[in-house]
Amino acid sequence: MTAFFHQLKNIALKNKNVFFITADHGAWALADFKNSVGNQYLNIGISEQAMASIAAGMALEGKKVFIFSITPFVTQRCLEQIKLDICLSNLPVTIVGNGSSLTYATHGPSHQAIEDIAMMRSLPNIKILHPYDNISSAHSANLAYKSKSPVYIKLDKGFYENISSKPGDKLFKLNKKKQSEILIITTGVIVHRVDKIIKKFDKLNHNIDLFNMFSIKQFHKDLPKYLKKYKKIITVEEQNLPGGIGSIIAEIIADNNINVNLTRLGINDKYILKCGNRDWLQAKYELDERSLYARIKKIISLKI
Amino acid sequence: MNNLKKLSKKIRLTILDTIFNAKTGHIGGSFSCIDILIVLFFGKILLFDPKKPKLKIRDRFILSKGHATAALYSLFAHLKFISFKELKTYCKNNSRLGSHPSHLVPGVEIETGSLGHGLPIACGIAFAALQDKQNFKVFVLISDGELFEGSVWESLIFASHQKLKNLVIIIDNNNQIVMDRSKDVGDLNHLKKRLSSFNFKIDEIDGHDYTSLNRSLKKSKKNNKPTIILANTIKGKGVSFMEKNTKWHHSIPNVEEYKKASKELETI
After folding, report:
1. B122 at A interface, C-beta within 8 A
2. Which domain covers residue A120, as residue numbers?
3. Backbone angles phi, psi at A130, to 5 degrees
């Protein structure tokens, strides 16, 4: 998601109080940032715990700090530092995790990030952003820069087509002829796959609406009202199910007494220790296109 | 220095009263570090104004061994950061004075309590200050027990590499952790030698001796390198039956012990 680093470079060029600290994790798009605003760039070495606390100390003195590493290292390794040193004082530090969900499939569970949404959303004050294309990645940099609170950006790797010209929560693919009774809610780059599957169902005259969760902790106040319109909701996430977006929607449904059928599709609380690429691993978790299509087809065929 | 010694008697009594009244708190570690705190705050080492606790040009102080708030807040009452009336609310319902520091309290920069956080936060403040060419110093008080945390060593690498000349690390080296003596768990005996490899200014002193504390802390303000003051202390210092006794990490004196401790402290 090169657009994130490009946008952050533009921000840093305008404001010398913006600092980017990496715990010895690179990204090729980062080279441009380093070359352009090198005195606001720091490789601190492999020390994520100190990095999070140091960022908090700098934020106390008015610096706008972005800390960066592979997702589990910059979220889970230093979770207590994020909680106590950043969230407790509501300091505007941005945690940038590189490699969302199963991105680092071949590297094994140490590098995969399937529990981070559950962990990070449990922290008060933090905002969570999950970009899914270049536009939303650049938008994340802007939102984090403007935020007066901690932000966690769950950044993916690679290139994805822009799915919408307007980034944000409201990616409602509403059927104009007839209100759909089915809504799929998803998050991150798997939205591209879900969008493709929905288009397949469109051809079969099965109208399905889509809500892409870009902001994972802060929702539009009308979201419960919106969910009430549906008979079936399916959540799809490349995350472990406990505490993920399916759990979030279940909480919203329960808290607002919404009468709707909910099915959560995601990683069913297990680790796969064998090695393979992201597509292979997603298939093992039944999150590949074929499996997802079959699972969704089965759910929407069921009479309520 | 004699005035400070007299003051230390009063503040130790305040600490004892505060903990006895609250029926909670960490008395041993409060007594081991209170002399350091007194010289820092009353010995004209730190630049601060209790009426303007957020003054931009102030020296920063972080109590990384956050469990010693009975010492910090007793000191703050004597400094008029807070009132003695408020000090009586220590650990009571709806009080901002808990057994670990809160930034709601004037004079506290940030919450601490989980060990190994204060030093990297201080490093962040010091780094930012150098970027901004600010002249204030950052003092952080850590415990020798805290040296078992990996983040402390991560921070020492950072402070050394970034040449944080405005950073002063004071180690309350009381050689005790919660349940044991430090050296019985992990030998820190050659601490000065180990720390020397980081290319800091290191001063090893008696952490209860006011002349040494004053000299070392004054010197640290002029150092052009990060400074470590290895202050050798005694946990429970001032009360004979508490000194070097692991029971008194966080035990609460009963009435008899309270009277005995008060009597001893009054005759120092």
Report:
1. yes
2. 2-155
3. -125, 85
Query: What Cα–Cα distance (Å) separates residue B47 from each residue in A264, A302, B44, B72, B83?
Result: 58, 72, 7, 16, 21
Q: How far is A53 from chain B (nearest CA, A)?
A: 5
Residue A173 maps to a domain: no
For residue A170, is it within any domain? no
How far is the C-alpha of B209 from the C-alpha of B213, rounded, in Å?
A: 6
Q: How far apart are CA A226 and CA B11, in angstroms?
A: 61
Q: Is residue A204 domain-resident? A: yes
Q: Which residues contact A19 (CB under 8 A, 6 or more apart)?
A: A40, A41, A42, A58, A63, A64, A65, A66
Share of chain B above pLDDT 70, in %: 100
- Reported as a pLDDT band with limits 50, 70 and 90, residue B80 is very high
Domain membership of residue A160 (yes or no) is no
Question: Does residue A108 share a domain with residue A218?
Answer: no
* Parent domain of B250: 2-266
Structure tokens at A149: 């609170």
CA distance B188 to chain A (A): 22
Q: Interface pTM (ipTM) of the complex?
A: 0.95
Interchain CB contact of B124 with A (< 8 Å): yes
Q: Is B106 on the interface with A (CB under 8 A)?
A: no
Cβ–Cβ under 8 Å, residues B176 and B249: yes
Interchain CB distance below 8 Å, B116 and A85: no
